Amino acid sequence: MCLGVPGRITEIIDPNKKLAIVDVSGVKRQVNIACIVDDQNPPESCVGNWVLIHVGFAMNRIDEREAAETLKLLEEIIIAQGTMSNYE
Amino acid sequence: MCLGVPGRITEIIDPNKKLAIVDVSGVKRQVNIACIVDDQNPPESCVGNWVLIHVGFAMNRIDEREAAETLKLLEEIIIAQGTMSNYE
Amino acid sequence: MRDLINDIFVSNFDNPILSQLEDQASFELSNLLQYGDRLAFTTDSYVIDPLFFPGGNIGTLAVNGTINDLAVSGAKPLYLTCSVILEEGLSISNLRKVAQSMQVAAQNAGVQIVTGDTKVVDKGTADKLFINTAGIGVIPTGINISAHNIQPGDVVIVNGELGNHGTAILIARGELALETNIESDCQPLHSLVEKILRVCPQVRAMRDATRGGLATVLNEFAVSSDVGIVIQEQSLPIQKKVRGVCEILGLDPLYLANEGKLLVTVPQDYAEKVILEMQSHPAGRDSCIIGHVTNSHPGIVLLKTIFGSERIVDMLVGSQLPRIC
Amino acid sequence: MRDLINDIFVSNFDNPILSQLEDQASFELSNLLQYGDRLAFTTDSYVIDPLFFPGGNIGTLAVNGTINDLAVSGAKPLYLTCSVILEEGLSISNLRKVAQSMQVAAQNAGVQIVTGDTKVVDKGTADKLFINTAGIGVIPTGINISAHNIQPGDVVIVNGELGNHGTAILIARGELALETNIESDCQPLHSLVEKILRVCPQVRAMRDATRGGLATVLNEFAVSSDVGIVIQEQSLPIQKKVRGVCEILGLDPLYLANEGKLLVTVPQDYAEKVILEMQSHPAGRDSCIIGHVTNSHPGIVLLKTIFGSERIVDMLVGSQLPRIC
Amino acid sequence: MKYIDEFREPQKAKALIQEITKLSDSYPLKIMEICGGHTHSIFKYGIGGILPHNIELIHGPGCPVCVIPKGRLDDAIYISQQPNVILATFGDPIRVPSSTVSLLQAKANGSDIRIVYSPLDSLKIAKDNPDKQVVFFVLGFETTGPSTAFTILQAATENIRNFSVFSNHVLVIPALQFLLKNPDFKIDGFIGPGHVSIVIGTKPYEFITQKYHKPIVISGFEPLDILQSIWMLIRQLAESRCEVENQYNRLVKPEGNKVSLKVMHQVFEVREKFEWRGLGEICNSGLKIRPEYAQFDAEVKFNLPNAKVADYKTCKCGEILKGVLKPWECKVFGTACTPENPIGACMVSSEGACAAYYKYGHFAKNFPKNTVEKSIVTA
Amino acid sequence: MKYIDEFREPQKAKALIQEITKLSDSYPLKIMEICGGHTHSIFKYGIGGILPHNIELIHGPGCPVCVIPKGRLDDAIYISQQPNVILATFGDPIRVPSSTVSLLQAKANGSDIRIVYSPLDSLKIAKDNPDKQVVFFVLGFETTGPSTAFTILQAATENIRNFSVFSNHVLVIPALQFLLKNPDFKIDGFIGPGHVSIVIGTKPYEFITQKYHKPIVISGFEPLDILQSIWMLIRQLAESRCEVENQYNRLVKPEGNKVSLKVMHQVFEVREKFEWRGLGEICNSGLKIRPEYAQFDAEVKFNLPNAKVADYKTCKCGEILKGVLKPWECKVFGTACTPENPIGACMVSSEGACAAYYKYGHFAKNFPKNTVEKSIVTA
Ligand code: SF4
Ligand code: SF4
Ligand SMILES: [Mg+2]
Ligand SMILES: [Mg+2]
Ligand SMILES: [Mg+2]
Ligand SMILES: [Mg+2]
Ligand SMILES: [Mg+2]
Ligand SMILES: [Mg+2]
Ligand SMILES: [Mg+2]
Ligand SMILES: [Mg+2]
Ligand SMILES: [Mg+2]
Ligand SMILES: [Mg+2]
């Protein structure tokens, strides 16, 4: 359930209605960013953010650090496996 | 203006609404006969009548006698012309 | 979709070429050469409402109509395509009936439906079912039929009653609330043509008088060959009920559509032989001479009325509409 | 109507066969024999919405689509028909644009539109304009291409990026409010095919991957020849924006329509030569091997995913719809 | 076909021609057939061609399609373009250009326009489409008036609320008065409209004989009817008589049809004036739905633009209808003005004089194609 | 594509498989992915085929299209058949059969049904068609709920009166409770729904670990996400831990998304019970529009038939969703029940377990063609 796709916010088109443009791999669509704005994160601050889009709404920001860590962990496994296989 | 076609009333289908069926050369259509019925000529009496139909209404009965006379007159002209040409 | 195609079309039209299910049908050119030296190629789309009518349906029209467009060149019709555009919501049993009719019509005419296409469009973006057929036939060597070949002195022959198809459709539509049992004349004409050519390979022009009727074809003849054509009102075979409908609606039967009628012009010397030959064919029983070709008034078709006057029979402007005034 | 036909079609498609304006086109069989020994015959109806889209319009589709169905048999495409169904209210200038595009496409491909048909239907009973084209070509002697000929060991080649047409149309329709500049790949493939056959007359099967996309053609190949086909996900040429649209809408690019892509299977020994030859043609610049044929799992197409797993690529059930879940 | 075929017999036609020729030898005669139905028959049966050359037939203003002014067509198109409206009408007017498009083009643009054979069919459409407003756009002379009136009465009886009529009924007698008053108007006699006369009888024509001293013969529509009427007319002239004669007595009675007259007057009243294309405004020449039936009057139900639209200046219809000019004497005949793209009243229906000449005359082929470009596809 | 391609890298996949294989050697394991999105990814990327054989993936009830009961589809079709209604919905449910026809067939029969990508698109349709009633037929889990809620709030702000929502939103947690309560239900651990968890966070899953002592890992949807989650789950099992772990921490936060939760609760309330196809009625498992927004609630606006329609007896969906049976163990799998003519919940969307096996599994080709005859042409 719940197809989601990562995209980058490129533009705010209506701060009141919380409408922004996202870019997914060169394809643009209008999305609603209401779920990711609050007092700390006004609409304008979202430009450049990577978000997960579902049915035309930005669900959450993608945490770049966490994503990188997840991948780093996997890299480490590969390295560990490589090391181990050297031992074998 | 005012295309009219002769047809024969074959059936009364609704005496109140004054609807009848006419036959034109084997083609049947419902027509309204309000213009040709009155106290002397109730709907039922119209079956078998030849009428002139215009836009789905029977305009008048066709007077068979008058029609025959018109044609007779023309026949007579032919005969007269024939006689005359005999003289010529 | 694939199931629909298989179920309705492939199964009904079943033949070795179609069943290859390639993107194209193919057949040996050498086989074609046995029938003649030229290929004839034609197409028509069929958009009739209603789909079913007395005397046929859109499927029989689609097969016979294209066969006839081949036949009037003298060609032996051989292969047809069948492309359908289906409106969502079309009844599948009706579609099956149409496909079956197409196969029966094709079989009767000795042609094969060898390739096709199926498209489904949204409800409201087509009128139930449109069919396109394209056809291929081979023209026998020595036969040269063309609307450009007509010569003064030729006679004009028709193979039977005019206007039955157009009238049947008008009535089947039900909008004008007319009732009578007129049947469409939908029929294939290639075997009639074969008979004609047997006794008269010198046929000048031949055309099936479909949309636009007799008047349209005669005008095409007159213009293409730059000749005058004179037809006799009293010779025109028109059945009583068709006349009745025309009188009621103010229509001219010369412009009514036919789906199994052809007009053929032949040199005068052949007229009698051709008529006799035509009358011996079921599709030509009521064949008759309806007019002749003249070198006066080139490009113009004249009708000699029953009481001796004449008038121009012109091309139709737009389609014929019921008149009241 | 006659004016419309003359103005729009006869004038644009102008050629000696069409201008006869007979009910059928005709041409010498002997002229056909110079190209090969078999006739190829095909038809398709085109019902695209919108009529105009980036990279083409319904007219270019109608010409190139039918050329391609001929080309994939190895045939030299020669003659086309053009049947149009017009919805009342269609803009005549748009119709003229379409006809002009058809003529340009035909001329570019060296084919002639030799006969046609025009029907007008009531507003609301067609979607602006439907076109049917049927086509004739001649298959060179010795060439025998068929979906039934594929053998284990063969390789599967495609001539470039997948899914551009389907995506361009989806976006042009505007309903999903996506914006990007993807162009349809609409193009004729016969000259590419000619090049392929020059270096590899042994081509087994060839088909243009139109509606239903790559997946559909590969399944047809696998079933027709009763072989297994394995394709490599990492080899599939799919442009970034098409991938973007697929990710957003949950679509599978393997099923997206193309209008200028063909899949060809050749014996392994010829693969390299064929690829090089294809890459030297403008319509084949991005040609690549995407898979091979095996005798395990006959009738089944497998995709090797990027990280080494595999899955079945089945026929599509119905048409592909945007997913959310 | 009974009452048709007998009146198309060639032998009798020949006899009549012979009589006509005999009688008309010395006269150059101008005879006007008032009714478009007669014009249609005359061309369809080539009657002009078999009459002696000294008899010239002038085609009168009796085609309701020809004479409807552009402004009224504009109104009909306006109605058809309102939301949820079905406009029903006869086949005849749908190709006639208004000042913008024809009804056919409006239909191609999306208006729901239905062709009916009878006014009652339009009422049925209303009953079948209760969520639509159905407007019957009617044109016609006295012949058609009673049918429209009966239909409105039936709608009233059945209380059909989504039905109305856009009346463009016109009257023959005021048009004749208008023509006859004109000093240019030089006609030797009239062929009177047979079907109109079924309704109104023969008496209303007496002013023609009494005030203007022109003979008139009420005529049927078959070719023999017309020939016989011409013969009767010439006989009057030859005998210096000037009467209202009735050739069509198999259908026309002196008093007309009382039921029809009654119902027509019950539902309609005479307009003070009504515009005729080619002729201009004519007093008392149109029929309007009475206030009692206002709920069935489209002119009340819809807020119509009701604009006056001038006829083209180049158009010679007025002169043609008066018999002063022949169609080919109009500069644009067959060039800018053709049945496909008519400019004037006389070209719009096949009963118009210009259209009839274009279609059946020998002139059709000699004119260049009309180059007026349509922007959309129509049927 | 950023955040996509990195999570599909084959080298990392191999490494994970190696780790998983190492750890799971001795266990026969049953792991349930709750979410249909995971099921989809698993089949699309062939993950089942690269996992060690002792790991069996059970496909849970997390496909909103699969679990919508027939009666609710009947209601949607009923709405679409009302006059002047446009029914807007996502692409997913339109082929699902109700007890009569599918939405696709209803469309073919004349219903105006539009496929939208976003609830906001359906609101736009309402604004563009002021003379129509536009109903958004929505199904979805907590992921989609906030979007629907925002759309209703916007309709309220803009006072759009011709817009309503037919809510079939369902909740994951009550469904899991329902499954776990069942004594048949024998699963070693869960892959938790990543996108639902963006909204609800990780805490609501704690009852699984605390009450039922099953580990769970909230997972992303890319193949590496899923493999990593399986690895994390097996590691918990190997280390005898039992925790709610979060593999998808680039998007899922423990507390969820507060804005989304707030707006969802503002607009929706929990239904006492809601029927799930294949499972039956589940307490507190559906979302209903609150009375404050009743004017946007299609269940209030329309008088729905609201009939209960029993699942087919032969259908084993319940057992399949519980992991007791595999699709091919159902008698009608691939014969009477196919994606083209599905009988049960698990065959209706490509995320259903049966559909996924039919489409991507190795079983598809071995079954005879479905012979259920459709009576009309559909797209
Ligand atoms: S030709 Fe046309 S413009 Fe001229 S008088 Fe006739 S109708 Fe009028
Ligand atoms: S195959 Fe069909 S009927 Fe059987 S369990 Fe799956 S969905 Fe239910
Ligand atoms: Mg043709
Ligand atoms: Mg034809
Ligand atoms: Mg023809
Ligand atoms: Mg095709
Ligand atoms: Mg329809
Ligand atoms: Mg094809
Ligand atoms: Mg094709
Ligand atoms: Mg193809
Ligand atoms: Mg044609
Ligand atoms: Mg349309």
UniProtKB/TrEMBL annotation, chains A, B:
MF annotations from Gene Ontology: carbon dioxide binding; iron ion binding
InterPro entries: Hydgase_assmbl_chp_CS, Hydrogenase_HupF/HypC
Alphabetical list of Pfam families matching this protein: HupF_HypC
One GO BP: protein maturation
PROSITE patterns, sorted: HUPF_HYPC
Superkingdom of source: Bacteria
Gene3D superfamilies (alphabetical): 2.30.30.140
Classification via SUPFAM superfamilies: HupF/HypC-like
Family classification: Belongs to the HupF/HypC family.
Name of the featured protein: [NiFe] hydrogenase metallocenter assembly protein HypC
TrEMBL record, chains C, D:
Domain PurM-like N-terminal: 34-139
InterPro entries: HypE (IPR011854), PurM-like_C_dom (IPR010918), PurM-like_C_sf (IPR036676), PurM-like_N (IPR016188), PurM-like_N_sf (IPR036921)
Gene Ontology biological-process annotations: protein maturation
Pfam families noted in UniProt: AIRS, AIRS_C
Alphabetical list of NCBIfam families matching this protein: hypE (TIGR02124)
Name by which UniProt lists this protein: [NiFe] hydrogenase metallocenter assembly protein HypE
Family recorded in the similarity comment: Belongs to the HypE family.
Residue ranges constituting the PurM-like C-terminal domain according to the UniProt record: 151-299
UniProtKB/TrEMBL annotation, chains E, F:
Keywords noted in UniProt: Iron, Metal-binding
Gene Ontology biological process terms in this record: protein maturation
InterPro entries membership: Hyd_form_HypD (IPR002780), HypD_1 (IPR042243), HypD_2_sf (IPR042244)
Recorded GO MF terms: 4 iron, 4 sulfur cluster binding; carbon monoxide binding; iron ion binding
Entry superkingdom: Bacteria
Record bears the keyword Secreted: no
Similarity-based family: Belongs to the HypD family.
Protein name in UniProt: [NiFe] hydrogenase metallocenter assembly protein HypD
Organism: Richelia intracellularis HH01
